[in-house]
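Notebook B, p. 112. Complex prediction, attempt 2.
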Amino acid sequence: MSFAAAAEQLVWAGRRFDQRGWVLGTSGNFSVVVEREPLRLAITPSATFKGQLRADEILEMDERGLVATGARPSAEALLHVEIVRARGAGAVLHTHSIWSTLLSEAHGAGGGLTIDGYEMLKGLEGVRTHDHREWLPIVENDQDIPRLSGVVRAMLERYPDAHGFLIRRHGLYTWGADLLQAVRHVEILEFLLEIVGRSSKEGAEPWRS
Amino acid sequence: MSFAAAAEQLVWAGRRFDQRGWVLGTSGNFSVVVEREPLRLAITPSATFKGQLRADEILEMDERGLVATGARPSAEALLHVEIVRARGAGAVLHTHSIWSTLLSEAHGAGGGLTIDGYEMLKGLEGVRTHDHREWLPIVENDQDIPRLSGVVRAMLERYPDAHGFLIRRHGLYTWGADLLQAVRHVEILEFLLEIVGRSSKEGAEPWRS
Amino acid sequence: MSFAAAAEQLVWAGRRFDQRGWVLGTSGNFSVVVEREPLRLAITPSATFKGQLRADEILEMDERGLVATGARPSAEALLHVEIVRARGAGAVLHTHSIWSTLLSEAHGAGGGLTIDGYEMLKGLEGVRTHDHREWLPIVENDQDIPRLSGVVRAMLERYPDAHGFLIRRHGLYTWGADLLQAVRHVEILEFLLEIVGRSSKEGAEPWRS
Amino acid sequence: MSFAAAAEQLVWAGRRFDQRGWVLGTSGNFSVVVEREPLRLAITPSATFKGQLRADEILEMDERGLVATGARPSAEALLHVEIVRARGAGAVLHTHSIWSTLLSEAHGAGGGLTIDGYEMLKGLEGVRTHDHREWLPIVENDQDIPRLSGVVRAMLERYPDAHGFLIRRHGLYTWGADLLQAVRHVEILEFLLEIVGRSSKEGAEPWRS
């Protein structure tokens, strides 16, 4: 995929998520793979409102998180590289919604949460029935990104079927073969997290846990 | 109604529902009858974001769910045919909202829920007073669509006055004489489902049931 | 105010309220006084999506609720005339939001609810301090509009300072000297109703009352 | 920064906040510093819908809250001057959201609330880790603005690290080095207030306190 096309997709995704309130402040970061060998990602810059991105603001990054122009990509860029490597993903998306944040804490101690029985699970790649149990792992937050990358790598290896994960009191990471699939995954998981949040005791009355 | 006009209506409906968050991911499917004998429906394609539809993406489908061009309509296309047959509907709409999903589960065991006393019920065709008791049936989800069609057919026969129904942990189906009426029905029912969800013990504290 | 200008204002108000989800389905009705003697109102037509109004759809109505062209104005048009008369209003707005509906029921038995202490109350005409107690009357719903008009008239007389009222399990009516003030009143009251709904036992756990 | 550029920024901020429902009615007020010595602020006028501002409506104000043209700036203009002085801010923003209002009351008696452990805290200037405890002071509302200014001044002195504060049953004040940073602060704090509101007993069941 050309860099220009990838940049346009990232701008579109940012607008969509901003409308939902999932990238408030300058939160969130998105990437699209433009080349695999060597690895080149189109990635959103740091400290920008993701709902107001312009295609010319998108950065091109290599697997060490370095950008030719010297601009600073998202602080979590290495996590994107980790996920691309572990899952062969074509796009990685990170959003900060109310419900993903609430549930990452409500279920944090258990290391994850199960979502099962919902038709919307079929929006996750490879899932063909509502009778599916999706385990959404939760890892602890950590400002040491290389260290967090290691934890994420181990978790993705341990749970090869997981379509996303939460970072505690932080947000959601998900991915897809391309950006459209990744956006679909964000929307499906955000929807399901609100469902679980409103229908489970942990989600609706977390102070009681 | 011409196919082109039907396609434009479906695009409009998709945008409206997408703004409300009722067709997240690539969920939802909508159809409009363009011809009755033989039956021809304009229907949304599978795996597309319903808020971003283009008129040229809309498919023309017959009563067996087959499309001349070979493209794949929504997996649930046969349910649309069922509803058109049972109700003489001119349009069928299927949405996945938070509240329809929550209540489909909260009231699932009872096979349906009653909504009564609200002025908004008058937005349902044939209802002239708020002193109306609307029974919204709930059927179990099933990946075998032909089998589910049979269950839906029997339920529609059993409840000839129902304006819509829920599929458990899945979403809402409703219809109308034309697309505008069907859109009105979706909005009225989604509104009422949120009202019931927030004001009933089953809806607001489902983990206690 | 010219009819054309009034029509443009009504179209604008409809769009604004539709974005908030306060006029779902074809609910809601709005009017602007274009002439006082004889009374002429620009009013929204029945059975239209209030977020999609066109200026040429707006009707001109007299004090008996009759329209020269024969088109049917909103069923509740007589309530608009009542409020214009009782309050000397220049515009009357009726919306159907989740929280106004929930609270109209939660506090219905008491005939009204008090909202006090909030800075936002200063958005109501004549209120200069947050230390204000606003009584929002609630009347029972009634499909007999002339009869309901009489009840509304008596209620407006009994509570000359009320800036709006709720109809039980129905929605909110408010008004203003002109449409902008009326829109401001809708937004202030809808905001405050959500505040009360989320912070009072009656609003948040109505099934316990 | 030129006055024209400041005015455009304020118009943009107003639209963004209006979409979120944080400036309903004619609530909210925003300012940008255009000159420091003497102090000149570009500020929103009173009694306008902040989501519909035009650049030509923005007022230029001095440190006494006076405007050359005679138009009336926001009633709370002196609070803006206070904050600019105390924090050296380049922009000051005041919003009225549901959650800021609810929490200002739920935690009002304690004079403030603590928000800690969330990644989103890093959207606040100077905060580099989620392991940060942000104290958000709450002051009592007061219609005597000069008196309230004094209280705000003392509170800002007492809590030099606070990035914002709440006025009880009123709303949120925050600021930034420039408008973009201030907008980021509003969004981060509004997000975190909803998180706290939904996950703490005080926020979710305030009637029990």
